[in-house]
Amino acid sequence: MAFTRSLFRGTALGAVLLLAAACGTSSGDDSPAPGASGFTPPKIDQLAQLGAGEGAVSVLAWPGYAENGSNDPAVDWVTPFEKQTGCKTTVKTFGTSDEAVSLMKTGGYDVVSASGDASLRLIAGGGVAPVNTALIPNYADVTDFLKGKAWNSVGGQMYGVPHGWGANLLMYRTDQVKPAPTSWSAVFTDAAKYTGKVTAYDSPIYLADAALFLMNTKPELGIKNPYALDSAQLAAAVDLLKAQKVHVSEYWSDYLKEVQSFKSGNSVIGTTWQVIVNTAVAEKAPVQAVLPAEGSTGWSDTWMVAAKSAHPNCAYQWLNWIVGPTANAQVAEYFGEAPANQKACALTTDKNFCTAYHAGDAAYAEKIWYWSTPIPQCLDGRTDVTCTDYAAWTRAWTEIKG
Predict the structure, then answer these.
(1) Residues 271-290, buried b or exposed e (16+ Cβ, 10 A)?
(2) What beta strand segments (E) does 94-220 contain?
(3) CA-CA to 214 of 20 to 30 Å: which in 15, 224, 226, 316?
(4) What's the CA gap between 356 and 350, in Å, rounded?
(5) DSSP letter string over 202-254?
């Protein structure tokens, strides 16, 4: 069975940045300073030209992103990389974005797979360097709509290479939820219809889901970006989630538990990922999922190079390898997400994989608000107010859950 981010990203998004120990806490010490593009990153030079590999590279990754055959002999894209480049690869996995940020501060890693709620903190804190994409040949085949985004670039400068992405969907039991839902209202304003059987993602970042719904249904709040909330807008999102809480059966972070909950009927509707839908269907659960009319939140991960990498040449070789079509196809299919490399789709074992995950579908991707780190400098461009940061979101989430 394919590995899935849900098991780890579940709680991971929480506490302080896309999973903070699957939860964690944030002091906001790495909050970016004001600048033309929201904040001004520290001055760090990018690699000017690629030299000989140093013979080693230290990889910090989400579980399932850098497999060397130790978990499953049939799943190994690290060994071929070592043979081709001569870069002996050590892999350390993390369970949350907050953990990744903390580990990167130790200075012992060359590259990291960062989610959108961690990447800005890494950039602002000077932990990662701008990336010279001209030294990464496979970057040319990365889907254009993943490049130059708020979570992986600053002022037009890329700080990494896009790796994989996905949307948070609305899953429901087809035998108990009728008619089929088309809006997030099913789990917010209409949640009473399924009281005690609504499930929600267990993380402070879930506040963005509430904000997205309010952005579409209460324009008077002035929400333009679900990750850019001033204190009044955050309060509105908190109120919505407090009202939802009385109808929630459980807050999930483990994909296996969510599958079981839908199979048993303890949950009949709630947020999910495509890979969870596929797993549930494979296990004969009567479920379907939809991208609601309001759009959704989602994730887009980026491979980044440590600012003080001891092996920058091997680090760049790793970035080129992991977003190459072969490795990117292997990771996407094993992990359960859309690959970033357009050529990867021809190499997946399941020839319908990219269709199911909407890989390369720009119109679909346009409906997704990718996880981003809430910071005081409003991501929607406002300069007349101070927005709430992830530390505030973490406190709010604790208040919501009680």
Answers:
(1) bbbbbbbbbbeeeebebbbb
(2) 111-114, 153-154, 157-158, 161-173, 198-201
(3) 15
(4) 10
(5) -SGGGHHHHHHHHHHH-GGG--SSTT---HHHHHHHHHHHHHHHTTEEEEE--
Report the distance separating Cα 325 and Cα 177, nearest Å: 40
Q: pLDDT, tens digit, for every residue of 314-323?
A: 999 999 999 9
Alpha helices in 126-230 (DSSP H): 207-217
**C-alpha dihedral over 236, 150, 130, 77, to 10 degrees?**
90
> pLDDT for 334-381, tens place per residue?
988 999 999 999 999 999 999 999 998 999 999 999 988 888 989 999
pLDDT for res 96: 80
Kindly report whether the peptide bond that precedes residue 325 is cis, defined as omega within 30 degrees of 0: no
pLDDT tens digit sequence for 170-222? 999 999 999 999 999 999 999 999 999 999 999 898 999 999 999 999 999 99
Domains of the chain as residue ranges with CATH? 6-165+298-370 (3.40.190.10), 169-296+376-401 (3.40.190.10)
pTM: 0.81
How many residues can be counted in the chain? 402
CB atoms within 10 A of CB 259: 25
Tokens linked to 356: 């199911």
* β-sheet bridge partners, residue 250: 199
Question: pLDDT digit string (tens) for 94-138?
Answer: 888 889 999 999 999 999 999 887 898 899 899 999 999 999 999
